[in-house]
Design brief:
Elements lengths: L2 H16 L6 H17 L1 H12 L3 H26 L3 E3 L8 E9 L2 E5 L7 H12 L3 E5 L5 H10 L8 E4 L16 E5 L2 H12 L5 E4 L5 E4 L5 H13 L11 E5 L3 H16 E2 L2 E2 L9 H9 L12 E2 L2 E2 L2 E4 L15 E7 L2 H9 L6 E5 L3 H10 L4 E4 L20 E2 L5 H6 L1 E9 L13 H10 L4
Parallel strand pairs: 3-4, 3-6, 4-5, 6-7, 8-9, 8-16, 9-15, 14-15, 16-17
Antiparallel strand pairs: 1-2, 2-19, 7-18, 10-11, 12-13
Length: about 450
């Protein structure tokens, strides 16, 4: 799609926005309720679409896609009206008898760019947040999930196209989508593309939220419950065939318990995903064969620790013995391969991770609360769990987002409202005011000012 056509779409949305068509909070709530109703109405269509695009089981669709979006709708329907109201704030003695108000105003036209790995969750959660806040949205969907996209478009079809509409771009279009001025950009994707988005946005000084990723580590300490740790790591890693931005990317395990941990991981893989010597029918596919081949090319056969299968886009869970120099450790894996690295001391691990890019997630397994606290304080990461994986994403009151190379900005719940609104401060002043602020500036006025501003 050429820049001129994109600009026309954005202009129509901006005109609609500036005309005040999104100002009424009750209208916006109706739009969110309609989206929620449609999500339920088309749930079976989503199950079929995810099966066609990913071979993803209905349970995973319900729990990681549909359920999460509906939960966000419910939060906004229940709490949003109160949270978006103007806030009264104290203005201090120097502005006595005045009124301070913070207005939460929408930005205008928002570009939401969603990835292919969770095409419903990661497209509609930011979209409904932006709609609720009064913005108009251009939603860029991934061309890799054609069946899911069709159902998403039916879900939003009852809203005016000026409020939300979809767009696609293929590889030949490059980054022309970002050569248009938006009022805000919300991007979910890779770190490398995120750099391009940020550079393009800088041309117009457009604010951005970047939800990226990175290599999210798991630390298995010597006092961890090995069976439980293996169970939760295997589940978190191989959810959606490892194509999850907060999936455990690799495991750092205390040397003394490494063999036992690998053994337990192998047991849980067999229990969860293998039936009669084959991968179960509902284990998700890798997004395409090219990606599947690339994943396999990054591992050494002699380092694989369990029996595995590959048939086209289907790769069964693979455990790999690794070190930091291996090919598989050079970038985020985003597939069903779990490297396992042994370590000697926790201090050594902390020192190593402090020199890496800050990950989107980090997971620690161990019974010692002081050691867990040390990891949390010593290392910077977007969010994570102690003695679990993934589940911090499901907490309504948690902000979700990265830090440094893993992202800029946060969303979910109240943080979605903070992301898609500008906090505009306005002081309402009556006739009363401090005469001391006006010239001439005498020594007496300076002394009075020092007293009230506590310059002593």
């Amino acid at each position: 799609m050429n820049v001129k056509l994109i600009q026309e779409i954005v202009n129509a949305k901006r005109e609609f926005f500036l005309a005040g068509n999104t100002r009424d909070i009750n209208t916006r709530l109706k739009w969110i309720k309609k989206i929620r109703d449609n999500l339920v109405q088309y749930k079976n269509d989503f199950y079929d679409a995810f099966k066609a695009d990913f071979n993803k089981p209905a349970y995973e669709v319900a729990s990681t896609e549909l359920g999460q979006v509906i939960k966000e709708c419910d939060f906004l329907i229940k709490n949003g009206k109160e949270l978006i109201k103007p806030e009264r704030v104290k203005t201090g003695f120097i502005n006595r008898k005045s009124k301070g108000v913070i207005y939460k105003e929408p930005y205008g036209v928002v570009l939401v760019v969603s990835p292919w790995n969770y095409p419903l969750n990661l497209s509609l959660i930011p979209t409904i947040g932006a709609v609720f806040c009064g913005n108009c949205i251009l939603l860029k969907l991934s061309s890799k999930t054609t069946n899911v996209n069709k159902v998403i478009e039916r879900v939003i079809a009852d809203l005016p196209k000026e409020v939300v509409s979809t767009i696609y771009q293929d590889r030949n279009d490059g980054f022309s989508l970002f050569d248009v001025k938006y009022d805000f950009i919300f991007f979910t994707g890779s770190k490398e593309t995120g750099k391009v988005v940020m550079a393009k946005a800088s041309r117009f000084l457009t604010p951005v939220t970047l939800e990226l990723g990175g290599k999210s580590p798991v630390i298995i300490d010597e006092d961890a419950d090995i069976k439980l740790a293996a169970k939760r790591v295997v589940w978190g890693k191989f959810l959606n065939a490892g194509q999850t931005c907060i999936a455990p990317d690799y495991v750092l395990v205390k040397k003394e318990i490494k063999d036992k941990f690998v053994e337990e991981c192998s047991k849980w893989i067999k229990k969860f995903y293998i039936k009669k010597g084959q991968v179960t029918n509902d284990f998700p596919f890798v997004i395409d064969e090219r990606t599947a081949d690339k994943l396999i090319s990054k591992i050494d056969e002699d380092k694989i620790l369990n029996k595995h299968f590959k048939f086209g886009r289907l790769i069964s869970p693979i455990l790999v013995e690794a070190n930091f120099n291996d090919k598989i450790m050079q970038e985020e894996i985003f597939g069903p391969i779990l490297p396992i690295i042994a370590f000697d001391s926790l201090n050594e691990v902390i020192k190593i991770l402090q020199n890496f890019d800050k990950p989107l997630a980090l997971y620690y397994f161990g019974k010692n609360k002081e050691k867990a606290k040390k990891v949390i304080i010593s290392l910077s990461f977007g969010g994570g769990c102690v003695n679990n994986t993934i589940m911090h994403f499901t907490v309504d009151r948690f902000p979700f987002g990265g830090v440094g190379a893993s992202g800029i900005g946060q969303y979910h719940g109240i943080y979605t409202i903070e992301t898609f609104t500008h906090r505009k401060s306005v002081l309402f002043q009556n006739k009363a005011e401090l005469k001391v602020k006006f010239p001439p500036y005498t020594s007496f006025k300076r002394i009075i000012t020092e007293f009230f501003l506590k310059i002593f």
